[in-house]
Amino acid sequence: AKLETKQDDSLPAKHTASPRGALDTSLVISEDKRTNAAEYGAKVVTRSFRRFKAHDKALVAASWAPEPFSRLLLTASHDGHVKLWQSTTGKCVYDLPSDDGIRSARFALYGAKFVRCGWDRKTVVVDPTSNAVLFSCTPSQGLPTCVRLDPSSEPNFFVGSRDVAELWDTRRSPAAKAVRTFTVRCGEVLDLLPIRGGLELACSGDLVTRDSCEAALSVWDVGSGARLSGQLYQERYTIPCLESLSPNTILAQTNGDYIAMFHADRPY
């Protein structure tokens, strides 16, 4: 079914949404009034705005749509479905099924489009308003693990796979190669984060050994594909999630039960 939206769809920025846990199938939308990084570190969400059963298997992604569709919430799961929800009612307004599980999915930074990748080895850009696949590609290493949108160019997105991150341009033929390839050699790429307006790319991987700690977190120059960082993170924990609260910070959620914050300024 096609997605129907209204132009006045807008949700106050104080609301956040996230899976409840790594193995949880439900979604919590929280009423959150924190406005800056200091408050994020000082408070914990204690009251839910809405809670609903979203998928039959564990959630892997939750993402708000950009304006003017920001009442829409995207979720993706190992059950193979990418769904869009009307956050005020908890109603599913769009469902894109797949025979294989989803690894990652995110709304585009502009318009009501989203990109997803999964165990079917495909990375797909979808327009839910027309139910049309706008672009589809297969990363060079076969199985994509995560996706991120390029904030510096609307048609571009980053895809991670094993030991490689790639920059793709949706204006090119799907049969063409990636615009840029980053040989990160970090095992399976767990997450990607464009920083400095998309000029640089932070990458985390699952290769954590005594002599390869620098592979857990690295920073790359998007224009040249060159590595910019040495050993940023010295702990032997993987980093499944990267985010940024401000242009000059990198937040790394670790499997050591803590979040590390790094300055996104050279030298790394």
From TrEMBL:
Keywords: WD repeat. Pfam families: WD40. WD repeats lie at residues 52-95. InterPro entries: WD40/YVTN_repeat-like_dom_sf, WD40_repeat_dom_sf, WD40_rpt, WD_repeat_protein. SMART domains: WD40. Transmembrane segments: none annotated. The keyword Repeat does not apply. This is Uncharacterized protein.
